[in-house]
Write a structure and sequence with these properties.
By secondary structure, the protein is mainly beta. The protein has one helix at about 30-35, and strands at about 5, 10-15, 20-25, 35-40, 50-55, 60, 70-75, 80-85, 95-100, 110, 115-120. The strands form two sheets. Strands 2, 4, 5, 6, 9, 10 and 11 form a seven-stranded mixed beta sheet that branches. It has a four-stranded antiparallel beta sheet with strand order 1-3-8-7, with no helix packed on it.
Length: about 120
């Protein structure tokens, strides 16, 4: 059974940084290395937004709202996904979720429970 467990959320002031972690269990090291992974966020009353995606060749994509401030990476040896968030803004306040896309089809059958990020002005 695949499980994703996020951590690293918290409260910071505008301009601060946070690093989110997502430990994935139920994947072999090989399957994790080949999976596409992503971070999403959802704020109250807003639609869920994908903020970072990492594909098999190691390339990453970001929406304009976070490009240049967020960075997604993963450690295949430890089945861990990261999201480094810098220059945080109040509009980054949301619950952040990691998601696994084993077939790299932009379908995400596996999700974590979420971690809260709050940025105060």
């Amino acid at each position: 059974q695949v499980q994703l467990l996020e951590s690293g959320g918290g409260s910071v002031q505008t301009g601060g940084s946070l690093r989110l972690y997502c430990v994935v269990s139920g994947f072999t090291a090989d399957s994790f290395s080949r999976a596409c992974m992503a971070w999403f966020r959802q704020a109250p009353g807003k639609e869920r937004e994908r903020v970072a995606r990492l594909v098999r060749d190691g390339s990453a994509t970001y929406p304009a709202s976070v490009a240049g401030r967020f960075a997604i990476s993963k450690d295949d040896a430890n089945n861990t996904l990261y999201l480094q968030m810098n220059s945080l803004k109040p509009e980054d306040t949301a619950t952040y979720y990691c998601a696994a896309d084993p077939r790299c089809m932009a379908l995400y059958p596996h999700w974590g429970q979420g971690t809260q990020v709050t940025v105060s002005s």
